[in-house]
Amino acid sequence: RRRLSKRARAVKVSGIFVVTGAAEADLLRTSLPALLPQVDELAVVANGPGSRPRVPDHVRVLENDRPLGFSANVNKGITATSGEYVVISNPDAVPEPSCVDELVAFADTHARCGIAGPKMLNPDGTLQASRRSFPTVGGTIVRRTPLRTLFPPLRWQRRHYLLDAPMDEPLQVDTMLGAFLLMRRAMLDQIGGWDAGYKLYVEDIDLSYRAMKAGWERWWVPSAVVRHEYQAVIDRHFFTRRNLWHLHAMLRFLRKHPERLFALR
User: Fold this and answer.
1) Which residues of 232-255 are buried (b: 16+ CB within 10 A; e: fewer)?
2) What's the distance, CA 222 to chain centroid?
3) What is the pLDDT of residues 201-248, one digit of tens each?
4) Rg (CA), the chain
5) Which of 4, 12, 136, 163 has the least CB density, counted as fewest CB within 10 Å?
């Protein structure tokens, strides 16, 4: 168990949860015991009143007086930890017992791997489309407007979701769903961590894009497995507050990386 070996050497892997509200805190009853034995240290960022979960004494809790954006909370967790690698996990992501070891073993043998992500499964065991190409203007318009009812993304955007790529071997990808990622601290230090200017959404894509620009690889590693609820709230309704947040996030992404305006489809 990693926790026992921690005394003998420097911290290899740090884990971070960001928890907003009582409902997410409750999800840690399953996900925290699954991740805790796989990391050397674990920090939970309690994002605002009512977010503090019950955790073992050796798990550090960082409390915010008021809610912050997701990226700001991730950066807070990164600063509070010291591992060579940092795992960020959503409260609804439950890693299988060997998940982190598989990701670390892969990254240790691929020196330019800045981000490694697991194979994600839906609760029913089906594959979740967590590995993706960078978004395009045309694809985003379809996914975030009523056009998605006419052109279901998983049917019409197979290239974006890499649905025809190999499923049983590691794959170098553009980006992966930020619900569970192993990140190399050297990469985070070089690119300045997560961009706290994002409130919610697109921050994981921005992280991968800046990593790519800095010469770091992003790898999908199917031997590491995570079960993830993937609530995808913004996929259920249009013209909601969360869709507005997503729009603002995409506009920020395009302002930072205007060359993506030429990627239409």
Assistant:
1) eebeeeeeeeebebbebbbebbbe
2) 16
3) 999 999 999 999 999 999 999 999 999 997 654 455 555 676 787 788
4) 18
5) 4
Q: What residue has token string 């399953």?
A: 30
Tokens found for residue 94: 């439950």
Q: In angstroms, rounded to a whole number, what is the distance separating the alpha carbons of residues 217 and 64?
A: 33
Burial class (CB in 10 A: 0-12, 13-18, 19+), 189: exposed
Is residue 79 packed enough to be buried (19+ CB in 10 Å), middle (13-18) or exposed (0-12)?
A: exposed
Q: Which of 178, 8, 179, 188 is nearest to 81 (CA)?
A: 188
Amino acid at 62: L
With a CB cutoff of 8 Å and minimum separation 6, the contacts of 89 are: 15, 16, 17, 31, 35, 95, 179, 180
CB contact at 8 A, 219 and 110 = yes
| Tens of pLDDT, residues 34-91 | 999 999 999 999 999 999 999 999 999 999 999 999 999 999 999 999 999 999 999 9
Tell me how far apart the alpha carbons of residues 227 and 151 are, in angstroms, rounded to a whole number.
27
